[in-house]
Amino acid sequence: MATATMSEIELQKEIFDKISNNDTIGLKTLLSSFKVKIQCVDEHGMSPLQYACFKGNKEIAQMLLDQGADVNFCQHEHAYTALHFGALSGDADLCNLLMSHGAKITSKNSVGRTAAQMAAFVGNHSCVSVINNYIPIADIDYYIKPQGLRTEPMLPPHLADSFHKFIMQVNVHPVRIAMTLQKCLGLVDNLEKIHKVLESMRQREMTRGADTNEVMAFKYHYLSCVVQEVIKCQKLLEARKNDNNLQNDKIKTTDPIEFFIRKLLKHNSKNDIKTLNFKPEYQELFLRETVREFPFRESTIFRQMVATLAGTDPPSASSVVSAAINGQRAFVELSQMCVTCGEDKANKKCSKCKAVQYCDRECQRLHWFLHKKECTRLEQPSIVQTNNTKIIDADDKIKIADAIKHEIDNLTIK
Ligand SMILES: [Zn+2]
Ligand SMILES: [Zn+2]
Which domains does the chain have, with CATH numbers? Predict the structure, then answer.
């Protein structure tokens, strides 16, 4: 067989050719028939893994990682790592794969840019978000074991997965964070512990020397502020039970997270929900306070947020915080944003007025206490005037039933 005598150089060329042609099967055969040095480089100092990432081929990248390719191996002439190439390719799943194999997110190329910064530069926002929000599970391991003189871990081990999910969330709208907090099992019952762990993680991110990550430090800080606010709501509701004066509070719910979400959503009527300048008053105040309380005042992220918020006619604090964590987006498609949680591409509309959109029924339900006052006003005349019998689909029926149930809930809660 001619191939059996292939020299090492020929073999390496063959590997790069197969990757170049996205020939997954050919590469697989090649790798299984020869003892291949997987850490070889081409004339630009690019390894096969870096090249596969440059091509945005996740399948080949996976194959090379399975063969033992070092995810952080870098001899590239401009110091682009596999993650830099993955981020530039625009494939968020590929970035996830590399990070789950230990790719360093703080590595910089020869012009001092990280992978996330390069992704932002070319407008690959999903990659920016995925990289900026990635947290290795090992970071949590530390907290589920007793450290130093402690007899108990800071985080009960059974909460590790829930907590990991909570801190990795990409949508950092405060309402969405509160919703996730509720969905991640066990967290609501351990708020004080979660709060302490988040504060400790914030500190750790800022004391990692060359790997210091201020974006992550700010995110932990922000999440800890949300948790603290929910604890405050919990205490307030507790006090309200026993105090007649507090029972007149306008927000009628006994669930602390729901109470917090309603506070976040409330706004005065002049503050128009359909404009880019929409700033629910309490939400704005809470987020500005969160930024102000970030203890690392020398950090770039702190200075930038403060400068933006202090400018004339500043954007909403929610968009400033979100941009700081997930990178600036060039266009915000207001018409596709969930009015409850700020999620992108929310495509369910209020079936009555068709003027507001939500991710799902849960977001609609949470917004109903406000929207019920506006729904009729927002209803478009053309719809009111049609004489056709309105066709109500199953989804609408559920929405209506939900709305009614919600009304009843409000009436019966003490
Ligand atoms: Zn939503
Ligand atoms: Zn409506």
Answer: 2-132 (1.25.40.20), 138-329 (no CATH), 348-412 (no CATH)
